[in-house]
Amino acid sequence: MDRRHSIRVWHRGTWTREEDQVLISCIEAHGAKKWSSIARKAGLKRSGKSCRLRWLNYLRPDIKRGNITEEEEDLIIRLHKLLGNRYFYFFSACLMWSLIAGRLPGRTDNEIKNYWNKIVKKKMQKSTGLAHCHSLNTQPCTENIAMLDEIKEADSCNIDPNAFMEIEMEENFNWSNSLTDVDNNLVIEAAAGNWMVRELSPPFICSFDDLLGSEDALFYYN
DNA sequence: AAAGCGCTCAACCGCAATACC
DNA sequence: TGGTATTGCGGTTGAGCGCTT
C-alpha cells in the first residue's frame, strides 16, 4: 500500500479496559517508544499520539494515584511562581509543567496542569493575587554578586543540596531577579528576605559554595 | 424524580523541536 | 541538506459525575 495516500480513521474518546490491556501488552513486548509503530502493532484504531498520552498519563506503572498532598501543593506553587515567571515572560512558557512534574515523582504534567487550574490558581487569586508572581524587576547584578560573596564569607547559609536551600538575607538586600546557569539547571530566587536555591534537573547538584565559587561566571540574569 | 449547573480530568489539538531518511 | 515523520509540550475541550433546585 502506498502510505502517501493512505487515510486512517482513528478511534477517539475514552479508552476501554480492553484497549488499555492491548496497549500495555504491546508496550511490554516492544517498549515505550516509536508510538506510531506501537499503535500499528497493537491493532488499536488509535493514533500513536493517543497511545503515548494514555501510557504516560494513565497506564505507566510508576504513576502515583491519589490526591495531591500539601507538600506537593506547596512545591507546585513555589515552582510555578518561579518557572511561570521565567518561562512565560522570557521563553514562552516552554517546559514549565513537565519541569514541575519532574520534581513530583509519579505525577504527570497533565495532572499538575489540571491541579493548578483547579485549585491553586483559585487559592492564589483569592489570597495574594497572581500579580505578585509577575512582578520581577531587572536590576544590575555586579554589586549583588559582591554581596553574595560577603554572605558566603559570613558563613550564614544553611546548605541542603537535596532540598530547597534557604539562606538568610539582609533586609536591605534589594534584588528580586531569578538567576540560572547557562543550562537552566539551577535557579536562585530572592523573595521575602530569603534565598531559595533550587536544583531543577537531576542529577545536577550544586552547593552554595559551588555556585558562588564558580570561576566560570556563566550565570546570566533574567 | 429530573432538569440544570458546575466541576473534574482524560483526551484531543496545534505547534515546535527533533529524528530520520 | 531538505523533506517528512515522530515526539513532546501547553492549551483547550467535552463527557461524565455529583450537587442543587
TrEMBL record:
Biological processes per GO annotation: cell differentiation; regulation of DNA-templated transcription
Localisation: Nucleus
Occurrences of domain HTH myb-type (ranges): 12-63, 64-124
Residue ranges annotated for the Myb-like domain, each copy included: 12-59, 60-120
GO cellular component, one term: nucleus
CDD domains per the UniProt record, alphabetical: SANT
Gene Ontology MF terms in the entry: transcription cis-regulatory region binding
The keyword NAD appears for this protein: no
Listed InterPro entries: Homeodomain-like_sf (IPR009057), Myb_dom (IPR017930), Myb_TF_plants (IPR015495), SANT/Myb (IPR001005)
Record-linked Pfam families: Myb_DNA-binding (PF00249)
Entry keyword set: DNA-binding, Nucleus, Repeat, Transcription, Transcription regulation
Main localisation: nucleus
PANTHER family linked: MYB-RELATED PROTEIN 308-LIKE, TRANSCRIPTION FACTOR MYB51-LIKE ISOFORM X1
Protein name from the UniProt record: Uncharacterized protein
Organism: Zingiber officinale
Lineage: Eukaryota, Viridiplantae, Streptophyta, Embryophyta, Tracheophyta
